[in-house]
TrEMBL record:
Its main location: membrane. CDD domains: MFS_GLUT_Class1 (cd17431). Keywords: Coiled coil, Membrane, Transmembrane, Transmembrane helix, Transport. One of its GO terms (molecular function) is D-glucose transmembrane transporter activity. The chain crosses the membrane at residues 12-33, 77-100, 107-127, 133-158, 170-194, 200-221, 286-309, 321-342, 349-371, 377-395, 416-439, 445-464. It is found in: Membrane. The keyword Membrane applies. One of its GO terms (biological process) is dehydroascorbic acid transport. This is Solute carrier family 2 member 2. InterPro entries: GLUT, MFS_dom, MFS_sugar_transport-like, MFS_trans_sf, Sugar/inositol_transpt, Sugar_transporter_CS. It comes from Lepisosteus oculatus.
Length: 507
């Protein structure tokens, strides 16, 4: 029986499904590229800002007396704004994810927001033709606005078109595309490629290139059958799209599942963001969704990337940029590992392993930093901690929060839930990006102890409160939250996973 089921699952992976997932993931690739592209040419862009503002003399930075380049305060302000405006744009646009996906469908939504990506890319690509600092900031703001929408629409679409047996693996491709985009930006941002004085506007402008390719491919991709049947009431079209996505097969089971989900959606009506926040019915899954996104950002992964270059320099690496690219390669490889494991080991298990492993790595890094001046070889301990930290992050805490939100909610509240979760992620990202330099200056070598404590708390929360969604239909997952809400007496301690999912035939 299990062999027959596996064969049926394999049949549901069609060429059209692969094309649809690849096309959607181009939006995530663009998101990753935009995240990473701004780092490599930092000094070159700061010099351009200085010349534009008239504060850079003799083609050199002001010196702070130690031989280290120290940009003018106005240059530093505009550079900080260039970096942070991306997250601010994402925070605001993430509230519009549900609206963009529901107005005319997921495909039309992704197609429409690509206009923003092209505009943002053009603004940055033409930065030398106007006030560079203004054009880069405007371009980054528009691109951030696009990425806030894309980071919600892509997991929503992939989660809705994926067969249940492959929903985790296909959902993880969102994160794989993000880290691939970061890696691509690191490689082509090298000085001898595009990360130089002449080519840096093209490097930034390429942020919009995946949107052009995606716009050509999206018309060939089927609309989400769930959207067509549940939201638009187009049963025949939904059935046709199911067959396009999964080949010729008996759609009875999938149509029955969507019918049941539609009946539940009718009972709960349309759920807005405010209704979702106020409703006690959705409080538990929403809290789980928030905590998973917070744990992704407050794990310290962005701080690790921020701090890695200086650690590589202390370790005697003559070209730390290549070591940073090495981190990007490991990032990509272990995301692939997650793709292969997520539908076998399960979401909850991989998150637990990842968070606990990262917690141990922050201790290793702290020891390495504290004794760095005493023992030269401790720098390699810190480097090992960085590489292992990235490995554990991409196994679970990196990719899983992006798609598990779509699994925790039925069709009615799903767009609003994804919008709120994305906003939570972007806001957390912005807070960490802005506050880490100050925290690091205050705590020094002990800065990662803060993340040790946070990661321990996130691990315990995941163990106690996060359900396993592997192999379950959307309705089964929603039913578990409903049953828990109605049956758990006040003051009862959090159930274990087996208690939480007791009675499910697919556990």
């Amino acid at each position: 029986d299990s062999t027959r089921e596996e064969m049926e699952c394999v049949k549901q992976i069609s060429g059209t499904l692969i094309l649809a997932v690849f096309t959607a993931a181009l939006g995530s690739l663009q998101y990753g590229y935009s995240l990473g592209v701004i780092n490599a040419p930092q000094k070159i862009i700061e010099r351009h800002y200085g010349r534009t503002l008239g504060v850079l003399l003799n083609e050199s930075f002001f010196s702070n007396g130690s031989g280290i380049e120290d940009p003018h305060p106005s240059v530093r302000m505009y550079w900080s704004l260039s970096v942070s405006i991306f997250s601010i744009g994402g925070v605001f646009s993430s509230f519009l994810v549900g609206w963009a996906g529901d107005v005319r469908g997921r495909i039309t939504g992704m197609l429409a927001v690509n206009i923003l990506a092209v505009v943002g890319g053009l603004l940055m690509g033409l930065a030398k033709m106007g006030p560079g600092h203004i054009m880069v900031i405007a371009g980054r703001a528009v691109m951030g606005f696009y990425c806030g929408l894309s980071s919600g629409l892509v997991p929503m679409y992939i989660g809705e078109i994926a067969p249940t047996a492959y929903r985790g693996a296909l959902g993880t491709l969102h994160q794989l595309a993000i880290v691939s985009g970061i890696l691509i930006s690191q490689v082509i941002g090298l000085d001898f490629l595009l990360g130089n004085t002449t080519m840096w506007p093209l490097l930034l402008g390429l942020s919009g290139a995946p949107a052009i390719l995606q716009s050509f491919l999206l018309p060939f991709c089927p609309e989400s059958p769930r959207y067509l049947y549940i939201k638009a009431g187009k049963e025949e079209e939904a059935q046709k799209c199911l067959k396009r996505l999964r080949g010729e097969y008996d759609t009875t089971k999938d149509m029955a599942e969507m019918k049941k989900e539609k009946e539940e959606a009718k009972k709960e009506k349309k759920v807005s963001i405010l209704q979702l926040l106020r409703s006690s019915r959705y409080r538990q899954p929403l809290f789980v969704a928030f905590m998973m996104h917070i744990s992704q950002q407050f794990s310290g992964v962005n701080a690790i990337f921020y701090y890695s270059t200086s650690i590589f320099e202390k370790a005697g690496v003559t070209q730390p940029v290549y070591a940073t690219i090495g981190v990007g390669v490991i990032n990509t490889i272990f995301t692939l590992v997650s793709v292969m494991l997520v539908d076998r080991a399960g979401r909850r298990t991989l998150c637990l392993v990842g968070l606990a492993g990262m917690c141990i790595c922050t201790v290793i890094m702290t020891v390495g930093l504290v004794y760095l001046d005493t023992y030269a070889w401790m720098s390699y301990v810190s480097m090992t901690g960085i590489f292992l930290f990235v490995c554990f992050f991409e196994i679970g805490p990196g990719p899983i929060p992006w798609f598990i939100v779509a699994e925790l909610f039925s069709q009615g509240p799903r767009p609003a839930a994804i919008a709120l979760a994305c906003c939570c992620n972007w806001t957390s990202n912005f807070i960490i990006g802005m506050s880490f330099p100050y925290i690091e200056a205050l705590c020094g070598n002990y800065v990662f102890i803060i993340f040790t404590v946070l990661l321990f708390c996130f691990t315990m929360f995941t163990y106690c409160r996060v359900p396993e969604t592997k192999g379950k239909t959307f309705e089964e997952i929603s039913a578990e939250f409903r049953r828990r809400r109605h049956t758990a007496p006040a003051g009862l301690k959090t159930a274990t996973e087996m208690e939480y999912l007791a009675g499910s035939t697919d556990a």
